[in-house]
Amino acid sequence: MELRQLQIFCAAAQTLNFTKAGLKLGYAQSNITGQIRQLEEELQVKLFERLGRGIQLTNEGKIFLQNATNILALCEKAKEELSPQVFRGTINIGAAETLCVYRLPQILTEYRKRYPLVEIRVKTESCENLYELIKGNHIDIAMVLTDRIKPHDMAVQTLHDECMTLVASPLHRLTKKKSINPSDFSDECLILTSPGCGYRPLILSVFKKHEVKPESMMELTSVGAIKECTICGLGVAILPKISVKDELERGKLIELDWTGPKFDVKTQLIYHHEKWLTPALKAFRELCSSMTK
Q: Could you give the CA distance from residue 123 to residue 252 in angstroms, rounded to a whole number?
């Protein structure tokens, strides 16, 4: 069994396509197919089910994938520990949309200055999807915006306490009120993020606790779209203050005096508790900590 075979197997398992695996590694499809066949003969098990033009991992293949991934990670660790002064490789980062726009760029700018040889890949997803991407080893680390991390297999590093704010168009009727509480939403439209957003459950729990149901709700996947709809007067929104700072300064949105419960939302860095952190990943984690204080 060769490391090259393990690399080919893992690429095929990730893409579930021998042709795509070959393109990813720079091998011909016939080479991929041949190496997988040799590996199956040596292990005396079927690693893939051939279903027409597609392939799927067998149960044995899923077990072997975990071991193969660990072996390749250990090999990478051994190589990098021989030259810790040189930061190379790739880091795959996941981020909630708001953080990808308003916190991550400054961090990545500084990171690129310090470690120019590291390749950076960023994927924007909802918090729930980021958990799954970490568990599947599709990303190495993620920056989320939520109140608390529920999965117990995640290592968590709190970076920053985020202020949530209630905003509306300057022409909205609620701007005439001195203070706003949950009951004011009984005849109001609440514009909020789609399911999967880290702070959405916290917002909804406040209204549920006070037995208040907004007259209507509008769900949007983009914070940018939520802001524009709020500016147009379609409703009011509760958003991280960092995401509406510019609109507040320009008077496009008005910050209302929310007297309801405080929304305890934090920017947090998460990764699988069994994840081996390469020097490049450790450097990213430390930079996030120092730049968000």
A: 30
* Residue 242 token pair: 């960092």
DSSP secondary-structure letter at 218?
A: E
Q: 18 to each of 7, 10, 32, 153, how far by Cα in Å?
A: 12, 11, 6, 32
Tokens of 71: 């072996």
State the helix-helix crossing angle for 223-231 and 241-249, rounded to 10 degrees: 40
| Neighbour tally for 89: CB within 10 Å | 17
Length of the chain: 293
**To which residue do tokens 């079927």 refer?**
46
Looking at residue 25, its amino acid is: L
Q: What is the pTM of this model?
A: 0.69
3-state secondary structure of 217: strand
Q: What is the pLDDT along the chain (293 residues), one digit of tens a residue?
A: 888 899 999 999 998 988 888 888 888 888 888 999 998 999 999 999 987 777 899 999 999 999 999 999 888 877 766 655 667 789 999 999 999 999 999 999 999 999 998 999 999 998 889 999 999 889 999 999 988 777 788 999 999 999 999 999 999 999 999 999 999 988 899 999 999 898 999 999 999 999 999 999 999 989 999 999 999 999 999 999 999 999 999 999 999 999 988 888 999 999 999 888 888 999 999 999 988 66
